[in-house]
Write a sequence for this structure.
């Protein structure tokens, strides 16, 4: 999934997933924010799958975005749902 990464003027970073409005997090450092983003993505996708909600395809060509992947278990489940 792609995300928008914003640096705060006072320090730290905010991460918002462009395809999942409910998925966002922050961290004091870039590394912490990206680590937290992977956890949030996993929890968001797990919740959507458990509730039978759609999981959108990731957006492409988002300027300044980072690719974030959920944990391996969630990747396997969401991959099964698209076949």
């Amino acid at each position: 999934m792609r995300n928008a990464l914003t640096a705060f003027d006072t320090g730290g970073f905010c991460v918002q997933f462009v395809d999942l409005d409910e998925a966002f997090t922050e961290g004091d450092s870039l590394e912490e924010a990206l680590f937290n983003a992977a956890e949030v993505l996993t929890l968001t996708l797990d919740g959507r799958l458990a509730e039978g909600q759609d999981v959108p395809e990731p957006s492409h060509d988002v300027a300044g975005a980072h690719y974030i992947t959920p944990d391996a278990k969630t990747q396997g489940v969401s991959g099964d749902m698209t076949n």
